[in-house]
């Protein structure tokens, strides 16, 4: 079911990106075509307008057609009066019907395979002469003129440009199709990863919560079957129930911390910290505990200047790593805590000579609810969220954390936190 939902989400994202890109390219292509066509027609119309002005005000019959335009003069009855000056164009232009409703308008005229663009106007001059300078007879006096320009090459250029845009749109459509598919796959990876992490988190959280709740329920039900017993008689069940309740409180607190961290609700409160004194305060309560478990604590704190960190979160980080080292270190072993400034980074190392972590599982230790024990038992306590919180604290400080093998056996957790220059 989840795969089907994820597949549908990916298809929706792909189609959204594909059509978005396609619409953008289509709009861009349309704008380019409109501007190209408009500029082409503007240039043609400017030429026609200049020639039309000359023809309307000229007192002399215009000569042969020039390279760009031809001018046809009509008398009052609509007959051509300068056919002798039109050369081999006279038979073609004779097919053009005079339409006074189109007066002073620029429009296209189709003549077979040739497209002409022209303007029909009234001649203003009253004294028109022919090419020899003789005054024309009254019936040959031009009253109207039609200025034409052959725009077939321009129409062909516009069509070629349109075809080029269409071809480009098809090519870009294919490219966009591929890019959209790749982008949708890339964009879905963090979504699928988050989805998978959420599922794993919910499953693991449900498992972690179910066990203590079951224990508490069983103990309470057992107490109800013995209403006449004293607290002294049932102290074991009460202690175990309280222990599981404390573990539930710790679990919910850790889960809440991670949830807030992922939603960026928690912000760091950085301030200068005297790190040597700070570490001494953290390690002091652990000295007796480590000694009582027949283990040895070695410290080497070499930080002689204040560092800018969130003291509360770094305290939590060190406690998590130190607790982890104590849990997995057998009796008679050594736990070492080192700290110094290295390449403008505050370097903190917590080493143990315990059971170590396999190479296969080193990348997994920071995952939520992870435990090195394959069975996931609770012998060492904890809920598998500590190192996830530690990683978040380091990441929030824009630092790095890594886990390596201790040459003498065991594990080394190394933390690098950027500090002020």
UniProtKB/TrEMBL annotation:
Catalyzed reactions per annotation: ATP + protein L-histidine = ADP + protein N-phospho-L-histidine
GO biological process, one term: cellular response to phosphate starvation
Enzyme class: transferase
Transmembrane segment boundaries: 12-36, 164-183
A single cellular component GO annotation: plasma membrane
Alphabetical list of InterPro entries matching this protein: BphY/WalK/GraS-like, HATPase_C_sf, HATPase_dom, His_kinase_dom, HisK_dim/P_dom, HisK_dim/P_sf, Sig_transdc_His_kin-like_C
Keywords, ordered alphabetically: Kinase, Membrane, Phosphoprotein, Transferase, Transmembrane, Transmembrane helix, Two-component regulatory system
KW Transferase (keyword) present: yes
Record domain Histidine kinase: where: 204-421
Enzyme Commission code(s) on record: 2.7.13.3
Location relative to the cell: Membrane
GO molecular function terms attached to this record: phosphoprotein phosphatase activity; phosphorelay sensor kinase activity
Protein name, UniProt field: histidine kinase
Native organism: Pediococcus ethanolidurans
């Amino acid at each position: 079911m989840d795969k089907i939902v994820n597949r549908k989400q990916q298809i929706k994202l792909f189609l959204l990106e594909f059509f978005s890109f396609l619409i953008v390219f289509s709009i861009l292509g349309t704008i380019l075509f409109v501007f190209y066509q408009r500029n082409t027609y503007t240039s043609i119309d400017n030429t026609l307008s200049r020639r039309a002005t000359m023809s309307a005000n000229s007192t002399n019959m215009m000569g042969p057609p020039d390279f760009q335009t031809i001018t046809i003069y009509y008398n009052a009855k609509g007959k051509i009066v300068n056919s002798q000056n039109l050369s081999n164009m006279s038979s073609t232009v004779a097919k053009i019907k005079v339409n006074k409703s189109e007066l002073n308008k620029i429009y296209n005229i189709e003549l077979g395979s040739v497209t002409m663009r022209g303007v029909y106007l009234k001649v203003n001059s009253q004294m028109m002469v022919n090419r020899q300078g003789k005054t024309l007879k009254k019936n040959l006096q031009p009253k109207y003129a039609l200025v034409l320009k052959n725009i077939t090459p321009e129409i062909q250029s516009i069509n070629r440009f349109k075809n080029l845009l269409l071809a480009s749109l098809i090519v870009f459509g294919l490219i966009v199709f591929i890019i959209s598919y790749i982008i949708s796959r890339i964009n879905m990876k963090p979504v699928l990863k988050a989805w998978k992490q959420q599922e794993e988190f919910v499953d693991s959280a449900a498992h972690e919560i179910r066990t203590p709740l079951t224990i508490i329920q069983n103990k309470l039900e057992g107490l109800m079957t013995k209403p006449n017993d004293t607290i002294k008689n049932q102290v074991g069940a009460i202690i175990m129930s309280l222990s599981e309740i404390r573990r539930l409180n710790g679990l919910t607190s850790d889960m809440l911390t991670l949830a807030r961290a992922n939603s960026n609700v928690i912000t760091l409160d950085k301030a200068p910290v005297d790190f040597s004194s700070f570490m001494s305060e953290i390690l002091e309560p652990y000295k007796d505990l480590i000694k009582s478990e027949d283990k040895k604590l070695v410290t080497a704190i070499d930080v002689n200047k204040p560092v800018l960190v969130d003291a509360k979160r770094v305290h939590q980080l060190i406690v998590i790593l130190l607790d982890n080292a104590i849990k997995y270190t057998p009796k008679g072993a050594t736990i070492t805590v080192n700290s110094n400034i290295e390449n403008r980074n505050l370097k903190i190392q917590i080493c143990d000579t315990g059971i170590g972590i396999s190479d296969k599982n080193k990348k997994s230790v920071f995952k939520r609810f992870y435990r090195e024990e394959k069975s996931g038992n609770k012998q060492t306590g904890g809920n598998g969220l500590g190192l996830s919180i530690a990683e978040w604290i380091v990441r929030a400080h824009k630092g790095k954390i890594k886990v390596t093998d201790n040459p003498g056996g065991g594990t080394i957790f190394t933390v690098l936190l950027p500090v002020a220059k």
